[in-house]
Structures are given as C-alpha cells and as structure tokens.
Amino acid sequence: MNRWLSLLTLAVMGGVVLGSDYTIKTIADVKDAHQYRDIVISNLHVPAGVPLVLLGLQNAVVTFEGTTTFGYKEWKGHLMMFKGDNVTVTGSPGHLIHCGGERWWDGRGGLGGTKKPKFFEVRLNNSQIIGLKIKNTPMHAISINHSNNLTVSNLDIDNLEGDWKGGHNTDGFNVYESKNVTIRNCTVNNQDDCIAVKSGIDLLFEDHYCSGGHGISIGSVGGRRDNIVERATIRNCFIRNSVNGVRVKTVRKAIGRVTNVTFEDVTLANITQFGVTMIGNYNLAHGDPHGEPTGGVPISGLVLKNVVGTVNPKGTNIWVYVTNATDWSWDIDVTGGTKTRTCEGFPDGMTPLC
Fold this sequence. Notes:
The chain folds into two domains: 1-192, 3 Solenoid (Pectate Lyase C-like), CATH 2.160.20.10; 225-354, Single-stranded right-handed beta-helix, Pectin lyase-like (Pectate Lyase C-like), CATH 2.160.20. It is built from two helices and 28 strands. It is globular, with a radius of gyration of 20 Å. It has 354 residues and is an all-beta fold.
C-alpha cells in the first residue's frame, strides 16, 4: 500500500460507518466517505496524478452519477482503486466514467512512449460491480487483484476510438491472485485482451461480446508471484474482428500450472491471426512467443466444446506449440484461415488438429 500513500493520494481508510448518504463532488470530499454506507460520486473531476482511492469500504454502495473525468499526467499506477468487503459499485442511469485515454495513446501502450496509468484496480471481497459505463482507458481497464467472491456484470468498456487514435494494451479485464470471480454479460471494444487471466482459482466468464482486441486469454501464466490458473470456465462468448480468438499462453522458462480450463460455446468471427492458439513459449520481455516451449507451466484438463467460427484467409485456424500437456478434449470447428503453422505438443493419444 505504500505506493499509494507515496502518491499523496487522498484515500478512504477504514473507520466507523455512520450509515447515511454521502456525496463526493470534489476530491477533497473523499477523505470522509468511509464513514457512510451510501456513497455517490457525482460529476467528479479527479485531478491529474491523484488517483481516486476508496479503501476500507464495508457494507457500502458506491454509485457513479453524471460524468467522472480525470486530469492528464504521465505516470504509472491506477486512476482508481477500491478495496473493501461487501461492497456494491454501480452507476446511475446516464452516467459515464470518461478516462480521456486518447490523451495518452501513442500506439505503444506499455511498451514505451508516454507513461500511462491503468484505470481501475479492484480489491474487493463478497462484492459486486454492476453496470458501469467506461470510455477510453489509457491502458488496462479493470484489474481484479486479491479478490474473493466477486461478481462483475453488465459493464460497457468502450475503447473503440483507440482503433484510429493509437490505443494499445487496453485490456478489458485482467485477473490476478483471485478466487471465486464471476464476470458476465459485458461488452468490450478494445485493442488487447478482452479478458486475460494471469492467476486465479474458480473463475467464470460468460455472455461477453468482445470486439477489436486480442480475444480471450488464459495468460500469460508464469513469471509472477502466483502462477496458477485452476478451474476457469469461459462460455457463451462472441469474439469478432480480433487478432486472436481463444488462447492459453504460458511463459517460457517459468514454473506454474494451468489446470481444468474450459472454453464452451464460443463463437469467433473475422479473426485476423489465430483462431485457437495454445503456446508454451511466451516471452514477457518481448511480449510475444519467442524460442521453444519449456513445459514448466503445463496445461492439463483443457476442454474446448463447441468453439466455432471464422478466421481471415490470411490467418491461422489453430496453432499449438507446447510441451508436457495432458488430458485435452476438443470439439471445435474453426475455418477460413489458409496460413498454416507447425503444431507441436498435443497430448499423447490426441489427434493433432493442425
């Protein structure tokens, strides 16, 4: 937490809950918000370089009202961070959280250029986030970290303008070191992963519309403090106009595991590079596959059921490049790509599909 305090953040710390309504209209109002159960963030402008941080929330409802905006500064961190237990975060009709990410976008994302903040770090237990409308995040939108029993639903993450204004690494959802997380019925228009699971256990992602990004990804897994993904289900999702469809990517020379992951009833449309891809040679430094897979993060219990759709003719339907894989079951129909890649590492007894 020191990194937040070092930013001279006006943070909400734990305290006695008074139980009445409280409205945040300026950043100076934030310091007293922890004492209330019903907190309204009303047409708030967050000054440049000062994240909106609500910590120690207990049994609270936080509602965004009107338009929330953020000042511009080149820095790394998050524009917002909420931490607490039994919290509901929602938005009133007509609200908008406008991050103004186009001021940072330069086509490079986190790989260089301007220093860009991420949008929203979530550290919530026994909580829910419902119905937020989010526009133009500088980089990653929702980072779920150290959360347990969290449900996220009906979010609209709109980074569509990044397609022509230089958006990059505008991930919709990233999940780290969390358990019992459900994300459902969200719309993501962006220029990176719609959903990316770095680590977590007992995760459900369903009923999503993903457009323009890099598809839905388990990974990259490896090279972090927690390198386990276990019991993750992705189902009833539509992925269109994206670089990738569904993929699992594990880090070369890392240690960890990916176990019991299911992609079910996923439809792909106009995927430009890889429809289905499983790789074990992801390189964190390069940000792409590099070298041979080392097998330190084995993929086991991987189920693809009714994964169907189309790949651009210049793309590849399926690419597998792993080692130490076991117990896969695939039922897929992905067609249209004419570019072939050599596949290696299908589990023993499974007929290679590429």
